[in-house]
Amino acid sequence: MKGGLKAGGNLSTLIVSKSGDVLNDESYSSRVSFHAGSYIQAHLNEHLLWQIELLFSNKGYKKEVEGETTNVSLNYLNWPVLLVYRPVKVVEFEFGPEFGYMISGEEILNSFDFGIDFGARFNISPKLNAGLRYSYGLPFKMQLEGTSAESYDINYQNSVLQLYLGFNLINDSASK
Q1: Fewer beta carbons within 10 angstroms: which end of the chain, N or C?
Q2: 173: helix, coil or strand?
Q3: Are 80 and 69 contacting, i.e. CB atoms less than 8 angstroms apart?
């Protein structure tokens, strides 16, 4: 079993599926932000492990409307639940669902978020690791009641690329 702390950068955006003429004057682009949290990992067998994380993740996007750019910040608590494949001690591949709850952000977006994560981690030493992960959010409907676009069916999804460093505070596998 091992566990510790991790933190890193996010490159996030909002993918919007438009319907009709609404939102035609808006464009969405990527935004750089951060994430931080903790993880715990345990063996299922020699090469398979499970990992659970609790992360604060600042996601969001840049929105441009009629030449004006706005940085939109979306703050989430995320719980990735991952299956990890470790072919050799220094490399791990991870895959699994990520559940999220937006604690602050835009009212037109759902509080609940769900995505599929996949990535790779490199165990630099028994204490230090680094990784790259992509989280592909599943589509949700925008909540447009009370807005001029309420009659439209507009979906969105989060898209986040993460680069991180992790520090193992617990590492029972290092002595084996």
Answers
A1: C
A2: helix
A3: no
Q: What is the pLDDT of residue 174?
A: 54
This prediction's pTM: 0.90
d(CA 3, CA 78): 17
CA nearest neighbour of 137 among 120, 165, 162: 162
| Adjacent-strand bridge partners of 18 | none
The secondary structure of residue 142, as a DSSP letter, is -
CA distances from 89 to 44, 45, 125, 128 (A): 15, 13, 10, 13
Distance separating alpha carbons of residues 35 and 7, to the nearest angstrom: 6
Fold of 2-175: Porin (2.40.160)
Structure tokens at 124: 């630099």
Question: Does pLDDT of 169 surpass 70?
Answer: yes
DSSP string, 57-83: EEEEEEEEETTEEEEEEEEEEEEEEEE
Give domain limits for the chain. 2-175
48 within 8 A of 85, measured Cβ to Cβ: yes
CB 97 within 8 A of CB 114: yes
Span 86-128, pLDDT tens digits: 999 999 999 999 999 999 998 889 999 999 999 999 999 999 9
